[in-house]
Design goal:
Blueprint: H1 16-33, H2 43-50, H3 54-60, H4 64-71, H5 73-83, H6 100-111, H7 113-119, H8 126-146, H9 152-171, H10 179-195
């Protein structure tokens, strides 16, 4: 994500200088975490590599965990985009097979699993888990409402919880599967959740083919 694309929590465009500084801090942290766990990384090491002062760091971030969550924001956006890569317009019926982007996302996430595991706890907790769940739920709710599917809030929460929990447990190696296999299983699970409640609000058989 380029500095020009950065936005604040309320959607406003971020000052370009601030965006560049935060971008250097994010890249610095990710580089540091390539060699050691987040718990062993210091603010001093991050600011030294980024070429900024400690005061500048604390102007933007409360601590390294806050920086790490920001640095990992791309994984949240990538997850949301991968799950919806099939959708080029409003449609009530996703394909039976997962989009190729989902397996690709999982393969890339595995490369940074040590860092993600410190922020995304088993079961989907932790700061990264909360952010992933929130953004997935919002996207699923909006798209379900757009096509007039029933109970968008309920189903969106279930979909977000299922994906976040399974993804977290997979990163922590509580679920053993290669990215393509996990993508296939996750997709069938999420389709079943989307199809579990029919127009009358009652359950209906989930189609897996």
């Amino acid at each position: 994500m380029s500095p020009e694309d950065q936005r604040t929590e309320d959607g406003r465009a971020e000052d370009p200088r601030t965006a560049r500084t935060k971008g250097r801090l994010r890249e610095s942290l990710l580089t540091e975490c390539a060699d050691r766990p987040l718990a062993e990384v210091s603010v001093s090491a991050v600011v030294r590599r980024a070429g900024v002062g400690r005061a500048t760091f604390y102007l933007h971030y409360e601590d390294l965990t806050a920086l790490a969550v920001d640095a990992c924001a791309d994984v949240v956006h990538a997850a949301v985009d991968a799950l919806h890569d099939w959708q080029t317009g409003p449609s009530p019926l996703p394909p039976a097979r997962p989009p190729a982007a989902l397996a690709a996302f999982l393969a890339e996430a595995a490369d940074r699993a040590p860092l993600y595991r410190t922020l995304l706890l088993p079961g989907g907790g932790g700061p990264l888990g909360r952010r992933l769940h929130r953004e997935l739920r919002a996207r699923a709710r909006a798209e379900r409402a757009a096509v007039g599917a029933p109970h968008p809030e309920l189903v969106a929460s279930a979909v977000a919880a299922a994906f976040t929990g399974v993804f977290a447990d997979w990163l922590h190696e509580d679920i053993r599967a290669d990215p393509k296999t996990l993508a296939d299983h996750l997709w069938r699970l999420l389709l079943a959740l989307h199809r579990a409640i029919g127009p009358d609000g009652g359950p209906r058989a989930a189609r897996t083919r």
